[in-house]
Design goal:
Organism: Pseudomonas gregormendelii
Shape: globular
Strand order of the largest sheet: 1-5-4-2-3
Domain Rhodanese: 21-129, 159-270
CATH architecture of the largest domain: 3-Layer(aba) Sandwich
Structural class: alpha/beta
Protein name: Sulfurtransferase
CATH class of the largest domain: Alpha Beta
Number of strands: 11
CATH superfamily of the largest domain: Rhodanese-like domain
CATH topology of the largest domain: Oxidized Rhodanese, domain 1
Distance between the termini: 51 Å
Number of domains: 2
InterPro entries: Rhodanese-like_dom, Rhodanese-like_dom_sf, Thiosulfate_sulfurtransferase, Thiosulphate_STrfase_CS
Keywords: Repeat, Transferase
Length: 271
């Protein structure tokens, strides 16, 4: 039985502290190289957030090449019984995107440290500057389509009664006032709730406890398929995580996000 069995997807610093020595733990730090070097949770392996993205215009948020993912997860020591705990220092954007990647590779044993490094430090818990050695070479991975909405799929679903499109961008991007692509505005029918609005500023950026009520009021409800996006599926890593943590059964990340949608000649937009 896993040392983490019985825990919710979102865990507290004390939950992790008690399990830092678990033999099946892979602890992933998605802060920055500078922040990691200053001190990280003991045993954490740093993953440059850029390695979770394709990084090529116009849609840098698309999934990295298969071989690049196999190399990354090999370095982390990936295996079928591993339990991942992921964290960042920004409230869950990059960590949520990494959880989406874990869904893409079909690995279901994972947790998010609520508040990430900020909550860990606020609790006065230990940090380390030791860097674990790379665990090994590439591992074989099978990628799954279900966690991801392609542009074509999303376009085919627009207007469906059982669809909620969660736009995690800033209101100015949603309205078209701020233009970051060839086209401005938003996907028809999309609901805007900016990612940082879901973080509790008074509790070290933990996920707000009233998110179920907020999403209910917005019409982003568990009976619908939820497809979430931003500009590059970084900010919407957080919103993907929130929907998963709340037990929503049908959640997809639109990896192409507005970088793809807003630069494609055949996509409809609303202002």
């Amino acid at each position: 039985m896993s040392d983490f069995s019985g825990l919710a997807l979102v865990i507290e610093p004390g939950d992790l502290l008690a399990r830092l020595d678990a033999c099946n733990l892979i602890l992933v730090d998605l802060t920055s190289s500078a922040r990691y070097a200053q001190g990280h949770i003991p045993g954490a392996r740093f993953v440059d957030p850029k390695r979770t993205q394709l990084g090529q215009l116009p849609a840098p948020g698309l999934i990295p090449p298969h071989a690049a993912l196999e190399a990354l997860f090999g370095e982390l020591g990936h295996h079928k019984d591993a339990v991942y705990v992921v964290y960042d220092d920004e409230g869950g954007g990059w960590a949520g995107r990494f959880i989406w990647l874990l869904d893409v590779i079909g690995h279901k044993h994972y947790h998010y440290l609520d508040g990430g490094l900020l909550s860990w430090l606020a609790d006065g818990l230990p940090v380390s500057t030791e860097v674990p050695a790379s665990a090994g070479g590439p591992v074989s991975l099978t990628l799954h389509d279900e966690p991801t909405a392609t542009r074509e799929y999303l376009q085919s679903r627009i207007g469906a009664a059982d669809l909620a499109i969660w736009d995690a961008r800033a209101p100015q991007e949603y309205s078209g006032e701020k233009v970051l692509a060839a086209k401005a505005g938003h996907i028809p029918g999309a609901i805007n709730f900016e990612w940082t609005a879901g973080m509790d500023q008074a509790r070290n950026l933990r996920i707000r406890t009233d998110m179920p009520q907020i999403l209910e009021q917005l019409g982003i409800t568990p009976d619908k398929e939820v497809i979430t996006h931003c500009q590059t599926h970084h900010r919407s890593g957080f919103t993907y995580l929130v929907a998963k943590a709340l037990g929503y059964p049908r959640v997809k990340g639109y990896a192409g996000s507005w970088g793809e949608w807003g630069n494609h000649p055949d996509t409809p937009v609303e202002i």
